[in-house]
Design a protein that fits this description.
Elements (H helix, E strand, L loop, with lengths): L7 E5 L4 H12 L3 E6 L14 H13 L4 E5 L5 H15 L2 E5 L14 H21 L3 E10 L16 H25 L5 E7 L10 H7 L8 H9 L11 H12 L10 E4 L3 H5 L2
Parallel strand pairs: 1-2, 1-4, 2-3, 4-5, 5-6, 6-7
Length: about 280
C-alpha cells in the first residue's frame, strides 16, 4: 500500500471497466483521483457507455478508500471542456502527477459507415492528445503519462481490417499512432524527468468486448452467437490458456508506471497480452 501516496491522478473513461479499476486501485495505493467520463451513449458504438450513476459509483468506491475524488462528465473530443474540468479538479486537489487517458470505443463489424472510422479516431486518438495536452499545464515537475493502448497497435503491418469494418480500422490506426506518440513525447519530456509510457492489453473483460457486435465479428458463421460462442475465438489470440485478461491485470501495470518504482522507465510499451504479440510475430 502507498505506492502512489499523495499523488493526483487524472483518468478518463472512469465510470466503469478499466477506468474504474485504475481509479479504485490507485486510490487504494494513496492517490486522489480526477475521474472523467462522457456518461452518454455513442450511437456508432452500438453498445452502452458508462452512465452518470456508474461514475458516481466509481467516486463512492474511491471515497471508500479514504481518498478524495473529483468527477466531471466531459467528452474527451472537447479540448475546452477538458481544460475547464481539469482546472476545476486542480483547484480542489492541487495539481496533477499522473495522467491516464483511458477513454475509448470499438465499433467493430463490417457494413458500418465511414463515420465509424472517423469517430473512433476522434475519441481513441484525439481524446488521448486532448487529455494529455490539457493536463500538462497543471502537472508537477516529474509527472507520468500512461497511455492505454492495445496489442492491436503493435501488430506488424499490413493487416487486413476489412472483415472487422471501418470502426476496427479506426481503432487500430489510433492505437498504432499512439505508439509513435508515446515514443516521441517520451524523448521530449525526458530532460525534465517526466515520463510517458503505454500499456497494451489483449482483450479485456469489459463491455467493449462483451457485446453482440464483437460476438458476431468473432463468429460470423453463427446467426446469433453468444458470449460462450465468441470465447472460443478469443482463446485463439493468446498462446496462454486465456480468453481475455482481467481489468486488474491492466491496472497492475498502470500502478507500476504511476509509481516512483518506475521513475526511470519511459518510452516503454508494456504488453499485458498473454503472449499474443509474440505469437503473431513468429
Amino acid at each position: 500500500m502507498g505506492r502512489v501516496e499523495g499523488k493526483v491522478v487524472v483518468i478518463t473513461g472512469a465510470a466503469r471497466g478499466q477506468g474504474r479499476s485504475h481509479a479504485v486501485r490507485l486510490a487504494e495505493e494513496g492517490a486522489d483521483i480526477i475521474a472523467i467520463d462522457l456518461c452518454e451513449n455513442i450511437d456508432i458504438a452500438e453498445y452502452p457507455m458508462g452512465t452518470a450513476e456508474d461514475l458516481e459509483e466509481t467516486a463512492r468506491l474511491v471515497e471508500k478508500t479514504g481518498r478524495r475524488v473529483v468527477t466531471r462528465q466531459v467528452d474527451v473530443r472537447d479540448r475546452a471542456a477538458l481544460e475547464t474540468a481539469l482546472a476545476e479538479g486542480v483547484a480542489e486537489l492541487g495539481r496533477i502527477d499522473v495522467v491516464v487517458p483511458n477513454a475509448g470505443i470499438l465499433p467493430i463489424g463490417a457494413g458500418r459507415p465511414v463515420t465509424a472510422f472517423t469517430e473512433t479516431v476522434d475519441i481513441n486518438l484525439g481524446g488521448v492528445l486532448n487529455t494529455v495536452h490539457a493536463a500538462m499545464p497543471h502537472t508537477t515537475e516529474r509527472f507520468s503519462v500512461i497511455v492505454i493502448g492495445s496489442v492491436t497497435g503493435l501488430l506488424p503491418s499490413p493487416l487486413d481490417t476489412t472483415p472487422a469494418g471501418p470502426g476496427f480500422a479506426g481503432y487500430r490506426f489510433a492505437k498504432k499512432t499512439l505508439v509513435n506518440y508515446v515514443d516521441s513525447l517520451a524523448v521530449q519530456l525526458a530532460p525534465s524527468g517526466s515520463r510517458v509510457n503505454a500499456v497494451h492489453p489483449t482483450n479485456v473483460d469489459t463491455d467493449m468486448l462483451f457485446n453482440d457486435a464483437v460476438y458476431r465479428s468473432f463468429r460470423p458463421d453463427l446467426e446469433a452467437p453468444t458470449r460462450e460462442d465468441a470465447e472460443h475465438g478469443f482463446h485463439t489470440i493468446q498462446p496462454m490458456p486465456i480468453a481475455y485478461v482481467d481489468t486488474s491485470d491492466v491496472t497492475n501495470a498502470v500502478v507500476f508506471l504511476a509509481s516512483d518504482e518506475s521513475r526511470y522507465v519511459t518510452g516503454t510499451h508494456l504488453k499485458v497480452d498473454g503472449g499474443a504479440l509474440a505469437q503473431k510475430t513468429l
